[in-house]
Write a structure and sequence with these properties.
The chain is 42% helix and 19% strand. The chain has 11 helices and 10 strands.
Length: 260
């Protein structure tokens, strides 16, 4: 049964809680929420079976979580803060794709994050301008009300077959409907480029593990190298996976080992 917390700005956030043990909050990617993403639900249940409390929540503007006036990185941080309070005042985070840059922001901004696991975060070049330009372009399309154009723009730098496959699937209308919530994903990637990575991530004080698939795009191993270079003690590892997805057993083993 869905539980709810209320974020600092009054936004109600829906989540599922699995298992019992040290808490882990899953910060989902650009086009994920519980009713739309059985893979993450299965991951939450499998990690919970290894002795953890796992929180799988709908990010604001998705699923059973409310639509705020605007979807921002600060709002996403506030939602994670409310969930951390709900599980006892501290938690590990697992951030998937752009959810990983949101999780990095949460940890860097002083939230009580005990461990931070990241999956294929698409970080741009250190101090690059492409993140800010992408965020501005996305906001233009959101404000114009062009939801299909917003989704196409968000995926413009991904392999074209990913967009073609999404458009041909029954998931396309759902993905289009959630496009206003993509603003925070783009903002988080722009935030990471606002200064040298060592400075941007300077207040990430917890252990960090960046994971990427054995068959993946060049951006992800490069981002792993950058995170490891910028955050003292951070580690990286590849696990079985392809096309921005992971083999579940391998991910469960990696997370359980890291969180233990």
């Amino acid at each position: 049964m869905t539980e709810f917390v209320t974020s600092a700005d009054g936004t109600r956030i829906g989540y599922d809680r699995y298992g019992d043990g040290p808490p882990l909050i899953l910060v989902n990617a650009a086009m994920q929420f519980r009713a739309f993403d059985p893979t993450t639900t299965a991951l939450a249940q499998a990690v919970a079976d290894r002795g953890f409390t796992v929180i799988d929540y709908d990010r604001r503007g998705r699923g059973e979580s409310a639509w705020p006036d605007a979807t921002t990185l600060a709002g996403e941080r506030a939602d994670i803060a409310a969930l951390i309070d709900a599980v006892g005042g501290e938690a590990a985070l697992f951030g998937s794709s752009s959810g990983g840059s949101i999780a990095l922001f949460a940890a860097a901004s002083g939230l009580p994050v005990t461990r931070l696991a990241l999956w294929e975060v698409p970080l741009g070049a250190e101090q690059g301008t492409d993140g800010a330009e992408f965020h501005a372009g996305l906001l233009e399309r959101i404000e114009a009300g062009d939801r299909e154009g917003t989704q196409e723009y968000y995926m413009k730098d991904m392999p074209p077959e990913w967009l073609a496959g999404l458009k041909a699937s029954p998931a396309w209308p759902v993905a289009v409907a959630m496009t206003p919530s993509l603003a925070a994903d783009a903002e988080s990637l722009a935030w990471a480029q606002t200064a040298p990575f060592a400075e941007v991530f300077a207040d990430v004080r917890c252990p960090v593990l960046y994971l990427y698939g054995e068959q993946t795009l060049p951006i992800f191993p490069a981002a792993a190298d950058a995170v490891v270079a910028a955050i003292p003690g951070a580690r990286q590892a590849s696990i079985p996976g392809a096309n921005h997805g992971y083999e579940q057993h391998a991910m469960v083993e990696a997370l359980a080992g890291f969180l233990s």
